[in-house]
Design a protein that fits this description.
Number of domains: 2
CATH class of the largest domain: Alpha Beta
CATH topology of the largest domain: Beta-lactamase
Number of strands: 14
CATH architecture of the largest domain: 3-Layer(aba) Sandwich
Number of helices: 17
Distance between the termini: 41 Å
Structural class: alpha+beta
CATH superfamily of the largest domain: DD-peptidase/beta-lactamase superfamily
Largest sheet: 8 strands, antiparallel
Amino acid sequence: MKITIHLLLLLFVATAALAQPNTTDQLNAYLQKSANNGWSGSVLVASQGKILLENGFGDADRDAKRKETAETIFSIGSVTKQFTAAAIMKLVEAGKLSTDDPLSKFFEDAPADKAGITLHQLLTHTAGFPGAIGDDYDNLNAEQFAKLAFETPLNAVPGEAYDYSNVGYSLLGIIVERVSGMGYETFLREKLWLPAGMKRTGYLAPGFKKEELAVGYRNGERWGTAHDRPWLPDGPGWHLRANGGVLSTVGDMYRWYLALRNGSVLKKELVEKMWMPHVAEDPEGHSHYGYGWVVQQVEGRRMIWHNGGNSVYNAIMSFDPEKDLCIIASSNSNDWISDDISLQILSILEGKGEQEIPQQEPWENNPVTNAIHQILVEKGAAYFTENSDAVLRNAGFDFENDMQLLGVGKRLEEAEKWNEGVVLFEAYTRLFPNIVIAWNRLGICRKAIGDLPGAKAAWEQSLKLRPNGNPAAKWLKE
């Protein structure tokens, strides 16, 4: 998830003036109004070492009427990548590895096309790995994941192009384990989080109670919490581990910012290396990627940030290190994006009040869904089946965003193009095997072409994922 350049220009300019006399009241008023309109999440705003606001708004659990607070636990998504980068730098600090080390140093079975990939390339998304090679909740262990990654063709020659990749960060997490001899979460907790005072950050180690976690909502429907998803005994599988899914609070994330700023968990020169603009993210060079952070320079100011989400939760952490301004925001619903909340906060801090935020592209009618839909309609179901991954890549599909596939499927169903719908939802369930609606729609499309055994199999799988409140139960009975 990335915010647009236009919005980021607003973000940078908004750092010009801060903390006006009634700023906190204005922030509270805006956030409460947003909560009244359906947003829910937690926010922390700090300027020059002073916390201006630290609170929760809206419901953490709509059914139980449990309110969001500053202590509500939320998924930080891909903001996790900065922790993996910091773990690598901690091992650099200890002299146990170098960012120039190749994969072959840590994986004897690394194939020839991947053996020379360096840690620097993994950290900067220039290794050539695809964005994802499976669903977040397809619970592969480290060995299984590495094997799959090494068997997967690269999208580009290592070092030649920026291509945002969760795969690369999961491999970095495995390297952290192999070099340190400790589990990924254990290493982070002992070497980084607890020294920074972060007792409420992790996957399982903090011992979160279910009622402390924000419940996620997807298109208005209850999705549940991260701990309702299938995980391995020691945390998420490696499609998610080390690249996303860490749970935290706004207060703990601010403690992390302070620890990096003060050099208390990592030498300042290594922190600065994380914050260096190593690789351009776009041809114009408006935005650069460091190590687990996005770095941007506008009008002489440096803003460092990262966001993340899984089409349910989303979060953003951004700061201006020179002005000592830090904003952390979360949301437990995909209807509201934390990036927008953060940008409005910055505008209020500058004294401009609320700004009109351009809306994101609709999930069912945008250039990506249009391109996929066109191929399906023009070239047919058989062609898509044989070339689905290539078709999706060429269309610019975000392999972390299943909503794009749902958008295509909805249009195919509305046009009663059932054969095309079947192959689309077959690809959908292969890439995102734990999305209930994908299995339900696959069953509907199979039933429409007379494949009753196939429909039955799809709905049975759906019920395994969500036994209660699932319309598939009624369809099976019918």
